[in-house]
Amino acid sequence: METELSKSLGAAHAIFGFTPFPAVAAAITRAGGFGVLGAVRYTDPGDLARDLDWMQDHTDGLPYGVDVVMPARKVEGVTEADVEAMIPEEHRRFVRDTLARHGVPELADGEPSGWRITGWMEQVARSQLDVAFDYPVKLLASALGAPPADVVDRAHEHGVPVAALAGSARHAQRHAEAGIDIVVAQGYEAGGHTGEIASMVLTPEVVEAVGPLPVLAAGGIGSGEQIAAGLALGAQGVWLGSVWLTTTEAALHSRALTRKLLAAGSGDTVRSRALTGKPARQLRTAWTDAWDDPEGPGTLPMPLQGLLVAEALTRIQKYGAEPLLGTPVGQIVGRMTSERSVQEVFDDLTRGFERAVDRITRIAGRNGT
Amino acid sequence: METELSKSLGAAHAIFGFTPFPAVAAAITRAGGFGVLGAVRYTDPGDLARDLDWMQDHTDGLPYGVDVVMPARKVEGVTEADVEAMIPEEHRRFVRDTLARHGVPELADGEPSGWRITGWMEQVARSQLDVAFDYPVKLLASALGAPPADVVDRAHEHGVPVAALAGSARHAQRHAEAGIDIVVAQGYEAGGHTGEIASMVLTPEVVEAVGPLPVLAAGGIGSGEQIAAGLALGAQGVWLGSVWLTTTEAALHSRALTRKLLAAGSGDTVRSRALTGKPARQLRTAWTDAWDDPEGPGTLPMPLQGLLVAEALTRIQKYGAEPLLGTPVGQIVGRMTSERSVQEVFDDLTRGFERAVDRITRIAGRNGT
């Protein structure tokens, strides 16, 4: 499954796999795809360096990339404490009450609150980049629009192409104007931040808007048939995130979350602002229901909401508060019904793709199949 | 573009076109597709007979079908007047006020209020069927779930297969159990009544749920590339509705509506209950905004909402009240940028399909292209 883009990046297959887990990213790359490590959870640059060292040792010289979260809009001279001070007491009380209602214990005094969505803050993302550029990464992706111009320039100086997610054709055009090299067209059905346009409509719109820039189709893709569909729509590759969450290499916080993912149907996700303040598709839980409840205080804008709920999410995960336990995931979760290795998932993708090509050539009345 | 299903129905291409306009349906059939005439607006069976006579004279013996709106759940002994009496005065006032705010004149005394969504009522649909079965229709489609068992039986006695729309795999399974022959998997991005699952995810889920029954992919399809995607996802054909609305054969109520459709982008639709009481994707207008406004009275359940707004829609159309003027249409509306004949649209679809097959076979490294 080769396109100009996959060839130029040195991957055997035009399958890009986004994941927060180094073991998953490395396995995607070893399987012949292009693994992209999400860096948002690395608040300590040393941890990122350690995991990139490990990736380097486990990818046989094959290509991989890094994804940072870095909005182009800059907030000058604002500290995390400044942002914390902007959170209304009503919202803090709502967090406390919701956790108490579900009997979620407090963290011990001084216990680190673990992963905070501080990666949204530009300083953190820049320290991640300082680390990433020390490694032979072959792609810099930005999950929240185009990064600032100096970051794009810096990537290009390192010979690293930059990819950015877009939820609309206009959004994609702005990326192209900002010097982005690859647009990831992220459809409504995708996990994480999405717009309202579904992949079937969005992919060709973005291809038309930014051509000849290469486009990756993202959202709703978890089988080889869906890969064939994405490529038929004009994409030069596909970008899969959700499907790796239930692989054996994935290091989810709790078994309970894995069980919830395996049991969920395609209708069990919701586009909610509960996680970050911007609409992001995730498992529907008692937590998202509370935030989406018109009787509640509602969510705060990014980055306030992420800071507001950071400690709460740590507690929910640490104590396995099952009704509240969730994760960003796309509608494809309905297809994730068994735990398998990345290699098995990957083999299924390439086999399903070949089946879909057989089918479509037969329908077209082409010979040779 | 042949599948088992298109062959069994006698169509050259597995492209099913749904439309309320006989001239469009006939042109789709003549172009080599399968035209399906929506019967919901025919409150007078004589009008339907007249238009089916015309279709018969303009389809050269090629196959076509009819679509009725007939929910399987029966309401015994309830008249239209009974239903009218259930509409709260607050909602009637909201309709009057909204129209007055936009300066929409009243109809003259005794002037017929034109198309009322009385087709939702079972008696009307049954009188439509009495007419339809007098013609050699090759498909009976039901836009709102499976029709009652006796209607399915009656179609089968006439040798006519029955198709029903489904927005989820569970919905599709119920259709299969009700003896339906073909499932139309209608994705979130489609015009008209839709669920929340996008076509990329829904199509293969429905194929898996009801196989070996044939599935048509609907929602987000308006180009040959999107047809190839739908077929790659396992469908035996595609079901297109929106794309015909801006053909030269379409008899829309007003030029203003055609202009609005041509100007709209993929982000200019909304899934709203304003039209029928169930979520249906349509152009976003001042009318849908009013109904979706949390400050307003909100919509009523089907069939109340349809009866409530019937006269208002006639007035909006008759007087061309542009800010309020809308129609059911899918996200593909962003691609509908010029008025063309059905034949031109159809040629574009088949050419685009061949291009997509070329592309996908090249990516797969197959020879023969």
Automatic annotation (TrEMBL), chains A, B:
Known EC number: 1.13.12.-
Top-level taxon of origin: Bacteria
Name the UniProt record assigns to this protein: NAD(P)H-dependent flavin oxidoreductase
Keywords: Flavoprotein, FMN, Oxidoreductase
One example GO MF annotation: oxidoreductase activity
Protein's organism: Streptomyces coeruleoprunus
Pfam families on file: NMO
